[in-house]
Amino acid sequence: MLLDGCLTRFLRGGEATGLRFFVRLHERLDPAPEEVAGRLGDYLALLPASAANVADLALKQVQRGGPVPAADAGEAVQGLLFRKEGKLVRAGLTWLDRLLKDGDDDLDAYAPALAVALLCEAAGARERAVRLAVKHTARFGPAGAETLREAVATLPAHQGAALAAAFGGDVAAEPEPETFTPGTLPPEPQAAPMPPPLRTPGELGDFMPKESSWIRTERWLDAFVRLFAGPERDRLPAALTRYATPDNEFRGAPWWHASTWAGAMIRELADPGAESRIRDAAGTSARTNPPTSPCWPTATARRGPGCR
User: Fold this and answer.
1) CA–CA distance, 141 with 144 (Å, rounded to integer)
2) DSSP secondary structure string, 98-128?
3) Which residues pair with 210 in a beta bridge?
4) d(CA 56, CA 59)
5) Domain residues of the chain, as ranges?
6) C-alpha triplet 280, 282, 288: angle, nearest 5°
7) Which of 38, 19, 39 is nearest to 27 (CA)?
8) pLDDT digits (tens, 9 = 90+) for 223-269
9) What separation, in Å, do the N-terminal and C-terminal C-alpha atoms of the chain show?
10) What is the pTM of this model?
11) 82-122: per-residue pLDDT in tens?
12) What is the Cα–Cα distance from 211 to 201, expressed in whole angstroms?
């Protein structure tokens, strides 16, 4: 009763996830071969269009349920080969290979299934089908040979030629390779000229870096280096000191912004060695007065979670 209930549920269809319980129940029931043989038609009906997990279960049961009539087996293989799941297509080809090996001298019942395999989108599946057809050429009667002959024109030229050598038929012409004709490229975009350099300490003081403009930062650095090395070096501190990094900024790390680095450069220009003195003083304070807060802002203390 449980086995029949599972099969009834499978035949009603549905998604793989919705049928998972019944698949597991069927596996736990583990029907005997004679029970499968009595329900062979139901299992065969599940192969073409049921959910993948159900089709996989049905195929296993069919293969352990004893011999399948050639016409039914051929139709079942066709159903598997039409599926989109690569695993089931490969299983169908494996079953077809076994049927061809074990069949009698007339394999015409399997010719339609082999023709379907020759139409598979996967090149590997088509290649395997061609090999099977060529291998068993002599065992196909006139009707089966004609079915396979009609498939020759649908194959790529190299596969069609191999099949035509065994069964005849017209091989599809090799497509002409497409000739590449390069189009006209658009004109190369011209880079905008760099703005003129900053020439005086006053201009530099009114033009601090901004994170939103890399060009502004580059121009500021260029002017700072040139003016620092030039005759107007002594005028730089007066023009820039208002932007110098304060003591507390030296205790925080890392520095992410160009403006912060610019401020440190200005502080070093106006007060050489300031950074080292401030960091050393912070380190001494931390050693003599251990911080009670995980957020103590020194160069040697690691900031705690959530500190800003």
Assistant:
1) 5
2) HHHHHS-S--GGGHHHHHHHHT-SSHHHHHH
3) 213
4) 5
5) 2-167, 201-288
6) 105
7) 19
8) 999 999 999 999 999 999 999 988 888 777 788 889 889 999 999 99
9) 69
10) 0.52
11) 888 889 999 999 998 888 888 777 788 889 998 998 888 88
12) 21
